[in-house]
């Protein structure tokens, strides 16, 4: 009887130890799996953080590069503007000086004018200052420049801007000695139309700016 009781005790002890070992093994695996999950999650967070930092760094670098490039461009433009021989003058003065120098080259004059006169004309300005003359429908400028302030040494042109770096111009007579200017309006109309039709287009470059800078102070705007 005692032997049977002893065997039962041993059997229960063995069973209890087996259950305990099984539970411990299960807990160990669960803990290991949890550790792996946490490690994987931490790795993902770290990777995401690195990617985000890398993107932010690249964006900052690109932004800094663009800002630096823009600053260099602005500085370059300022240097070019300040280094222009015509800087400090109004746009109108620069235009008249450039037109004068371009016309000097066009007519192959080898002098620099001693005087320059500018008269602004409104729309419908008469080609000839006499009855019967046709008119120029747009605003024009009459530009007069002289080598020696004599009639023979003076050139007079009337032009209108095309607003694209070029002008349309015709050369005015230096004098009106023909009596028909005063007596024959039909003839005046015909001759003024001929002169207007002779208008030419001329590009106004900036290549004469050095010469223009030497005469711009002589311009008198009426």
From TrEMBL:
Residues 1-23 form the signal peptide. PROSITE patterns: PROKAR_LIPOPROTEIN. Residues 27-87 are annotated as: Disordered. Residues 40-77 have a biased composition (Low complexity). Keywords: Signal. It comes from the Bacteria. This is Lipoprotein.
């Amino acid at each position: 009887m005692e032997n049977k009781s002893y065997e039962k005790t041993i059997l229960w002890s063995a069973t209890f130890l087996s259950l305990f070992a099984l539970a411990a093994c299960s807990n160990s695996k669960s803990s290991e799996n949890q550790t792996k999950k946490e490690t994987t999650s931490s790795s993902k967070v770290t990777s995401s953080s690195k990617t985000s930092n890398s993107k932010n760094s690249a964006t900052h670098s690109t932004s800094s590069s663009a800002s630096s490039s823009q600053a260099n461009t602005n500085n370059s433009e300022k240097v070019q503007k300040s280094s222009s021989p015509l800087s400090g003058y109004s746009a109108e003065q620069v235009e008249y000086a450039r037109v004068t120098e371009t016309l000097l080259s066009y007519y192959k004059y080898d002098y620099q004018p001693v005087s320059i006169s500018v008269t602004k004309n409104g729309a419908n300005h008469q080609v000839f200052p006499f009855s019967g003359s046709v008119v120029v429908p747009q605003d024009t400028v009459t530009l007069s420049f002289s080598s020696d302030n004599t009639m023979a040494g003076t050139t007079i042109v009337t032009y209108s801007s095309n607003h694209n770096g070029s002008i349309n111009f015709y050369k005015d007579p230096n004098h009106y000695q023909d009596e028909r200017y005063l007596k024959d309006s039909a003839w005046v109309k015909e001759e003024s139309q001929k002169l207007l039709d002779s208008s030419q287009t001329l590009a106004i470059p900036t290549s004469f700016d050095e010469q223009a800078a030497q005469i711009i102070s002589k311009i008198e705007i009426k």
